[in-house]
Amino acid sequence: MLSLVLTAASGEGESEGFTPPSPADFNLPPIGGSTSSSTFEFLGQANYAGVTKPMVQLVLVAILVFALFYAASRKRAMVPGKLQYVGEEAYGFVRNSIGRDIIGSHDFQRFVPYLFALFFFVLFNNFAATVPFLQFPTFSRSGLVYSLALLSWVVYNGVGIKKHGFVGYFKLQSVPSGVHGPILALLIPLEFLSNILVRPVTLALRLFCNMFAGHLLLILFALGGEYLIAEMGGAYIGVGLLSWVLFIAVAFLEVLIQFLQAYVFVLLTAMYIAGALADEH
Fold it and tell me: In angstroms, rounded to a whole number, what is the distance separating the alpha carbons of residues 235 and 278?
């Protein structure tokens, strides 16, 4: 997994000492090199337009999720084979543990396809951070996560407006039940801000920050250990080896976090859908 971090240390950094990882290590150049365009020049600074590694990973994961579960369901049988069994267990996990238990037994079924696709799309993109030759968490790029959170925002607000009407839905989301009097002048803006505007931001930030911070930590342990062993030597070799041990331990921990963050992202989406369908807030 060291290949994912080698670009963090430049020649200049080696001559002056250890160069710690930074957010700049997540700004991957377009595949095939940077291509500037005057269309993307603002304030005298050129931005770069092109296909980047996270974009490719998004497409590859979408194809993989579709192909995997299409193959699992293509030849259905009463006695399932191994692939069909895995597909049915995966579907049942999302359907029952997230859809039915959170949204409720009456309304959940129509949302299961979205929740199912969302869960495995996020999960496989998170797992890309530990896959050789990919080794980059797709959702450590905030723009990609915000786009995904915006999609969930459209879904749960859309179903809420469809059921309660535009005015009725925003009233349910903004006016706390059982509260009367002047205090409403304070609570209504807070409820609107919390339930309508802030939710997609916090939904995205939770996934983005975990993927970003975990990968940054891996870079630090990997490059730090390499620098201590190769450049410092002597008594620092033991510390460098310890850094690599921590790198391996954190890498295994990241696999668990990658699963949990996919689960939490979809779980909160289901909770927001359930709240949008509820008759009282």
Answer: 63
Distances in Å between the Cα of 133 and the Cα atoms of 2, 120, 136, 168 are 11, 20, 9, 51
Question: Is residue 76 packed enough to be buried (19+ CB in 10 Å), middle (13-18) or exposed (0-12)?
Answer: exposed
The pLDDT tens digits of the residues spanning 106-129 come to: 889 999 999 999 999 999 999 999
Is the pLDDT assigned to residue 203 strictly greater than 70? yes
Q: Which two tokens stand for residue 61?
A: 């994961």
**8-24 per-position pLDDT tens digit:** 443 443 446 778 877 77
Among 186, 100, 202, 111, smallest CA distance to 149 is for 202
pTM reported for the whole predicted model: 0.83
As a whole number of angstroms, the distance between CA 281 and CA 278 comes to 7
Q: What are the DSSP E strand ranges found in 22-92?
A: 36-42, 45-48
Neighbours of 124 (CB within 10 A): 20
Provide the pLDDT for residue 11: 40
d(CA 168, CA 157): 12
Q: Indicate the average pLDDT of the chain.
A: 85
Q: Rounded CA gap, 266 and 281, in Å?
A: 21
Contact yes or no for 25/219 (Cβ under 8 A): yes
